[in-house]
Design a protein that fits this description.
The chain is α+β, with helices and mostly antiparallel strands. 32% of the residues lie in helices and 16% in strands. It contains four helices and five strands; from the N terminus they run ββαβαβαβα. The strands form two sheets. It has a three-stranded antiparallel sheet. A two-stranded parallel ribbon has the order 4-5. The model has no long low-confidence stretch (mean pLDDT 86).
Length: 147
């Protein structure tokens, strides 16, 4: 696996993991690499600092500088706001997510952004079939249904 810092045309920088540099290039060319904040497909690699491992006896001790509760709360709040913004243009499809995602991927349904629920087995099957999906970082409450 390889991790890249990526930048969209809107200037957002985000991190993404790929099996190889060739996988990144192929997914980018296919339009499958998109900004998680604004859904822009104009993606370029951002400048990254090389990660050089510290000597075994010089590794930082994370318990000496744990993140503050306020820092964690602020980060979660920003993540929740970014996810809510991304979902504004998405349609909730509930437990029909796998079926709808396959139909869109196959061209049997109009291309639109959707979100919903899928079991781990369904998600793995979608990935194996080449259907572009991504898990949401935070849980989403289904919209209230009118009875």
């Amino acid at each position: 696996m390889i991790v890249f810092d990526l930048r969209c045309g809107g200037g957002h920088v985000f991190e993404a993991w790929f099996g190889s540099s060739a996988d990144y290039a192929a997914q980018r060319e296919a339009g499958q690499v998109r900004c998680p904040l604004c859904d822009d497909a104009d993606i370029q690699k951002a400048v990254m600092a090389p990660q050089i491992a510290a000597k075994g006896n010089q590794r930082p001790d994370p318990s000496r500088n744990p993140p503050s509760p306020d820092g964690v709360k602020a980060a979660l709040k920003m993540l929740a706001a970014a996810q809510a913004k991304a979902l504004e243009s998405s349609t909730w499809v509930g437990t029909a997510f796998a079926e709808k995602a396959r139909a869109i991927h196959a061209g049997e349904a109009s291309e639109t952004v959707i979100h919903g629920q899928a079991s781990l087995a369904e998600a793995k099957a979608l990935v194996e079939e080449g259907v572009p999906i991504a898990p949401l970082p935070l849980p989403v409450a289904p919209p209230k249904q009118l009875n």
